[in-house]
Amino acid sequence: MVKRLCLNACTYCKTKHARGDLASYSVAELVDRAIQSFQEGVCEIWLTSEDTGAYGRDIGTDLPTLLWKLVEVIPEGAMLRLGMTNPPYILEHLEEMAKILLHPRVYSFLHVPVQTGSDSVLMDMKREYCIADFKRVADFLKEQ
After folding, report:
1. Residue 27 is inside which H or E element, if any?
2. How far apart (Å, rounded) are the C-alpha atoms in residues 89 and 51?
3. pTM (2 decimals)?
4. Residue 3 pLDDT more than 50?
5. What domains sit in the chain, N to C, each tagged with a CATH number?
């Protein structure tokens, strides 16, 4: 787990109310844990949280920075899998995320949730993105 909790305040979700604010682990802490895991024989690391894309916003960093640091320590034969992220956080780093997803030790897979196909419902849900944002993310990553 790269962080706990989420930055969003979606109308239907009680996670933030139940657990509190975003709490990211430091890049150094996560890289050290990855190195230790690889030394112990782990050959696949999954980065996950309630919204992985929001990683680092509370500690002055971001997901691409973490991913590039992790890629540096992934040994041959090992892989990195990236967990769920919402469209707004991918849009901020779209080109960089596409490059990372093309790295040979990173699975070319990204879970981007589709809550609804209606902009008005997304707005009512306070999802902080619209259908065009989702399509831009999906189309751009598919083209890569």
Report:
1. helix 27-39
2. 9
3. 0.84
4. no
5. 3-143 (3.80.30.20)
